[in-house]
C-alpha cells in the first residue's frame, strides 16, 4: 500500500507498506518510507549535519539511548559516506518487539520538492531481522539502496 502525508511544517512523508498479510503478521511487514524535510539555506551539503559517524551517533543510534535501554541489542552495522549522501545499515531491538533491520539514506537535494532551497531526503527501508536474513530480503534492500540516485532528473 502507498500513502503520502503532508505535515504542518512543509515536510512530506511517503509510505510504502507490504500489505500481504497472508504471508506475515503485522509486526513482520516490510515498510519503506521517504521523508522530505525543507532546510534553512545555510545547509548546503550533507556534511552540514556533521560527519557520517556524528550523524549516526546523534540520530540513528544515539549513544545515550543505547546506554539507557534495557535488553538493548541495537547495532550499527555500517555507516558510510558515498555519492554525496550518508548510508546506514543497522538493527534495533526494543523490548516486546522483534529485532528489526534498517537501511537508511540521508541526502541533501536542492529543490527536491519543487521549491527553492535545500531538502533533506531520508529513505528508510525496514523489516524484521529474521525475514531480512532468512528470506533473501537483503538482496532486495541492496537493489533499492544501490538504485538511489540513478533515476535521471
From TrEMBL:
Pfam families linked: PsbP (PF01789)
Lineage: superkingdom: Eukaryota
Residues annotated as domain PsbP C-terminal: 32-148
Gene3D superfamilies, A to Z: Mog1/PsbP, alpha/beta/alpha sandwich
GO function terms (MF aspect): calcium ion binding
Record's GO cellular component terms: extrinsic component of membrane; photosystem II
GO BP of this protein: photosynthesis
Protein name: PsbP C-terminal domain-containing protein
Organism (species): Ditylum brightwellii
Amino acid at each position: 500500500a502507498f500513502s503520502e502525508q503532508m505535515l504542518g511544517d512543509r515536510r512530506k512523508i511517503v509510505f510504502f507498506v507490504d500489505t500481504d498479510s497472508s504471508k506475515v503478521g503485522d509486526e513482520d511487514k516490510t515498510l519503506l518510507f521517504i521523508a522530505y524535510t525543507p532546510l534553512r539555506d545555510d545547509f548546503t551539503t550533507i556534511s552540514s549535519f556533521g560527519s557520517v559517524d556524528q550523524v549516526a551517533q546523534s540520530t540513528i543510534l544515539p549513544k545515550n539511548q543505547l546506554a539507557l535501554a534495557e535488553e538493548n541489542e541495537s547495532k550499527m552495522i555500517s555507516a558510510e559516506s558515498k555519492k554525496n549522501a550518508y548510508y546506514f545499515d543497522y538493527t534495533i531491538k526494543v523490548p516486546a518487539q522483534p529485532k528489526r533491520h534498517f537501511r537508511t539514506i540521508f541526502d541533501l537535494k536542492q529543490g527536491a520538492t519543487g521549491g527553492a532551497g535545500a531538502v533533506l531526503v531520508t529513505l528508510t527501508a525496514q523489516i524484521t531481522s529474521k525475514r531480512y536474513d532468512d528470506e533473501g530480503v537483503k538482496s532486495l534492500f541492496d537493489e533499492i539502496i544501490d538504485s538511489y540516485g540513478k533515476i535521471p532528473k
